[in-house]
Specification:
Elements: E1 4-13, H1 17-30, E2 35-42, E3 48-54, E4 57-64, E5 69-76, H2 79-95, E6 99-102, E7 107-110
Antiparallel strand pairs: 1-5, 1-6, 1-7, 2-3, 3-4, 4-5
Helix pairs in contact: 1-2
Length: 113
């Protein structure tokens, strides 16, 4: 396997954390990522983070309730799965009229020697 990671991130606005977490996990499954484990943390007085450990790398969501924003980041060593995830994500945002800012391109983080 080539030593490369495909990374992409985005901001989402005006959503409830409970709604989006289940949807994102479903999108990971639909993209055929292998979820090995996940963990989350609720911050006091507010805020939430969840990280999924994938056989192909990892996915994370971080909330910023004071700004009504979420940050998502997916890293994957399999470009086709990552692209499929983001296609599903964009269709979901269109279906539910979700406001988001997707960073424009996948970043290919190949091995640097």
């Amino acid at each position: 396997m080539e030593a490369v990671i495909f990374n992409r991130a985005c901001w989402i606005f005006d959503l409830c954390a409970d709604d989006i977490v289940k949807e994102l996990e479903l999108m990971l499954i639909q993209a055929e990522f292998s979820i090995l484990n996940s963990t989350d943390h609720v911050f006091s007085p507010q805020g939430y983070t969840k990280i999924w450990l994938l056989a192909e790398s990892h996915f994370a969501i971080h909330t910023f309730p004071e700004q009504n924003a979420f940050y998502l980041e997916l890293s994957s060593c399999i470009e086709s799965k990552a692209k499929f995830f983001w296609i599903k994500f964009q269709k979901w945002t269109e279906k539910y009229n979700v406001t988001y800012k997707l960073f424009p391109t996948h970043i290919n983080r190949g091995l640097i020697k």
